[in-house]
């Protein structure tokens, strides 16, 4: 695709492909911005899910155990078969069938290896996320790199492969909120080879490009909808400005529920 400002044919008449070229450029930029938005939300959903499990999982387990003990205490006091049945059901919830995660001791789940496990097997540093939302500086660096190095800006397969490899490292660094690495990647890109000089494209190629961009947008729309409709996505919508605070609020609520269950159990046991 010719660069902006390319000379027009003699006579000053616009080239027939110019309108198509402008449409392609606009569609490319719109797709990049949309993909950035989807990826940033995906990172938050993934990090929230992992931190939710790490921080709140033990509290949910404690609540299940207390519910089982309360049900068992009621059954022991009443001798009612129905209470006994409820107690058995509550106890069964505390001791479920082992999940894939348990069988592999936290190394993998149904979707494959956890990032930490994969990092260990490939001699990479193990750096789980510290926050749901990376810092403002990390987000700024990520957006700048994504806009500059996005694979959709490539004009040939060699350049696309280079950009895809680079943006994969950018996404991984952003997912960990690794500001120093993002700065290193920014310097690497700035020092890298310039894109090859673009040559004019035929109208058919421009139409094909527009069609591909539209298909890519449809795919991203499906991904975005799945993220938004997921349980974690719904939770994140409750606190779009500070998802980390949402984790703290849920933890506070769970602690209050644990305290309430403990008081109830103590009363049943006559303590």
Write the layout of secondary structure elements.
Blueprint: H1 18-78, H2 81-94, H3 100-103, E1 108-109, E2 112-113, H4 115-121, H5 136-149, H6 157-175, H7 179-191, H8 203-229, H9 231-237, H10 243-268
Architecture overview:
- The protein is mainly alpha-helical and 271 residues long.
- Among the domains are: 16-96 and 210-269, no CATH class; 136-176, Helix Hairpins, CATH 1.10.287.
- The chain is 71% helix and 1% strand.
- The protein has helices at residues 18-78, 81-94, 100-103, 115-121, 136-149, 157-175, 179-191, 203-229, 231-237, 243-268, and strands spanning 108-109, 112-113.
- The protein has a two-stranded antiparallel sheet.
- The longest helix has 61 residues, at 18-78.
- Mean pLDDT is 82; it is low at 1-5 and 100-108.
Compact description:
The chain has 271 residues and is mainly α. It is 71% helix and 1% strand.
What tags apply to this protein structure?
two-stranded antiparallel sheet; Helix Hairpins; mainly alpha; disordered N terminus; 271 residues
Largest sheet: 2 strands, antiparallel
Number of E strands: 2
Low-confidence stretches: 1-5, 100-108
- Give, in spatial order, the strands making up the sheet with the most strands: 1-2
Give helix % range: over 70%
Helix and strand string, N-terminal first?
A: HHHEEHHHHHHH
On the 0 to 100 scale, the average pLDDT is: 82
Into which percentage range does the β-strand content fall? under 5%
